[in-house]
Automatic annotation (TrEMBL):
Domain Plastocyanin-like as annotated: residue spans: 4-117, 135-238, 356-486
The protein's name in its UniProt record: Laccase
Entry keywords, A to Z: Apoplast, Copper, Glycoprotein, Lignin degradation, Metal-binding, Oxidoreductase, Repeat, Secreted
Presence of keyword Secreted: yes
Amino acid sequence: MEIKLQNVTRLCQTKTIVTVNGQFPGPKIIAREGDTVSVKVVNHVQNNVTLHWHGVRQLRSGWADGPSYITQCPIQTGQAYVYKFTITGQRGTLFWHAHISWLRVTLYGPIIILPKKHVPYPFPQPYKEVPIIFDTFKLKVKPGKTYLLRLINAALNDELFFSIANHTLTVVEADAVYVKPFRTTTVLITPGQTTNVLLRTKRHHFPNTTFLMAARPYATGPGTFDNSTTAAILQYQHRRHPSSTASLAKNTKLLLLKPKFPFFNNTKFATIFSKKILSLANSKFPANVPKRVDRRFFFTVGLGLTPCAKTQNCQGPNNTKLAASINNVSFVQPNTALLQAHFFKKSKGVYTTDFPANPLVKFNYTGTPPSNIAVASGTKVAVLPFNTRVELVMQDTSIIGAESHPLHLHGFNFFVVGQGFGNFDPNKDPAKFNLVDPAERNTVGVPSGGWVAIRFLADNPGVWFMHCHLEVHTSWGLKMAWIVMDGKRPNQKLPPPPSDLPKC
């Protein structure tokens, strides 16, 4: 992959942007479950660059994960790095994107993981497969056919509703994990999530009708947001009648049908939709959710204020600016990659291992905010012994304002065992957890004014980033990192870094 500048025209405007191989969006990566993927990235632009293979588990290949200053130093101008990893136990749709600064606004593309050879899908074999990254395009379909649409939300800051006018979709996969199929007219997909849906086209040709495929934001925060709609076109291929085609085009009015969406802040719909996503949980595709727990964590996620330097003029009270935090810690990006510091046992001055397992100050998280809403800052990590069974409850806070936060965990899939509104009750809510067929994901929305509980097995040694996938919140510090220690066996240890790992 060549990182280079390219002139791109969209909506009658031409801009010079950073691209991969001159393409926007970037090229597709197609692999099968079990394949080893090797991608050489060469940086020809002035920006430092890293690429992240979003949702790929990276079992014992943390050096290839890609978040800058977490698992690697950036690839500098004129330098190259080979990302090498094996796709284990995953099939479906993921995507790759830049993982430094805001570069993923243009550097992204689909990862399509096919099942192993001669292994069928657990749903009807589609006539055609179409990756959709919410750019404007036209899809021509045949009547009475089944299409597999691979939906990817690569947006920086928008959770999206997706719908096709006058059509019903069947959800069959989320985050490269098969789910119990269910029908819906609207799909909710947050930044960092992928969803595969089956579209069964109508039996007739509809030669004079255009159906809009559209996506528009779901937004819950107190700030302004982009309320525009991105649209693509679905048209039925019609039978050709050479004698009448020209006259038909002249004399027929084309009908444009638009989808109906939930209201932009319809959290009730978002909640109902997310609860419909359940693992297949059968013998072929089991849901290996940890039934017992070794370590419990409770993380508050949300916004607060941080003081500005005396030389700055910030608009918050007492010269402060917005910050984002987990358990009141706003993450400070180090100058050395955490994984290198961990592997070579040189953590001093890079990070500390005292990330709080619970909020240091308890308060009514979804009620009246405390009088002091200042956040602390630091490069703190949480350390887990190999094979620790983790339960993590993430609680939204109403400081500044309640808001949905899509949290992405690198290096693992996790099971979404529970969610609710208001404050999590550790005495009552765990009794309602789903430990049978919960959704298995890599990105989950912490509900606006609510909480979500996840479980995962820490069986992947390395340093693993966890962050909000709203880029603005990540840049404000809504992020942290887990260190998973090596196990005792050779196949439970992180190998040494590759020789071409970029230097800081």
